Amino acid sequence: MVNHAKMNYKKTRNHKQRNKEGIKLQLTQLSSETLLRAKERFEDTLMQMTVTEANTMPNPLIKSVTWLMWHTARELDFQISALNGSKPLWFKSDWRNRFNLPLPDNTEDWHHIPQEAAKVQVTDKQLLVDYLNESIDFTLNYLKTITEDSLQDIVDLNWTPPVTRQVRIVSAIDDAIMHSGQAVYSRRLVIGK
Questions:
Q1: At the top level of its lineage, which domain of life is listed (predicted)?
Q2: Which pTM value belongs to this model?
Q3: CA gap 151, 146 in Å, rounded
Q4: Among candidates 58, 175, 31, which has minimal Cα distance to 117?
Q5: Separation of alpha carbons 40 and 46, rounded Å
Q6: Class of domain 33-191 (CATH, top level)
Q7: Minimal CA–CA distance to 169: which of 93, 95, 75?
Q8: Staple 128 to which of 61, 69, 118, 150, CB 3.0 to 4.6 Å?
Q9: What confidence tier does 7 reach under pLDDT thresholds 50, 70, 90?
Q10: Whether the predicted pLDDT of 133 surpasses 50
């Protein structure tokens, strides 16, 4: 005799598992697509500019495209490294020496005053593209590894309320989106298009 109740439970359990995996896949795909759009916006903006133009702050309170790309790559790098417990790419891939900026390694770039932001300059635009690409690839690979259960893990007690893994990921991606839009605005102010 067939035990229909047991069969139905198995079907329901498997269906719920597939739904969870489907939702996780959708969230990962949405997050990845959003981040890739920011990357495209940055690259398109940078390719329209010379190195000098990219390094130019159009106003003391408006960051250069160089600073915006560097900061975005660095934020993704440091935020995701902290989440997965690894050494930041800034050190591991030696971006710190490649950029060779006159700033301390522990600079809080999100607090940069105009004089500090003006120190973020490059002589080769490809350096920005490469660091941003490595940081984005690092983030995309991390997104593939997270579980739904881990999204609510507390990852930072220095804020009220404490920051969850989900909030930190959303914050990092939101930062990338915001700064890619700022880069377009900065470019328009510098080169008029």
A1: Bacteria
A2: 0.86
A3: 7
A4: 58
A5: 10
A6: mainly alpha
A7: 75
A8: 69
A9: very low
A10: yes
Q: Identity (one letter) of the amino acid at 160? A: T
Token pair 């229909």 is found at: 4
**Within 13 Å and on the Cβ side, how many CA atoms surround 16?**
5
Q: At a CB cut-off of 8 Å and minimum separation 6, what does 138 contact?
A: 76, 77, 80, 81, 89
Across 39-48, 63-72, 109-118, least confident range: 109-118
| Tokens coding 182 | 């700022």
In the block, which residue shows the tokens 């930190």?
A: 168
Find tokens 């390719």 and name the residue.
47
- Rounded Cα distance between 191 and 64, Å, is 12
Count of beta carbons in the 10 Å neighbourhood of residue 111: 7
Which residue's structure tokens are 């106003």?
Answer: 59
Tell me which of 21 and 185 has the higher pLDDT: 185
- CB atoms under 10 Å from CB of 54, counted, come to 26
Residues facing 62 on adjacent strands: 59
176 Cα distance to chain centroid? 5
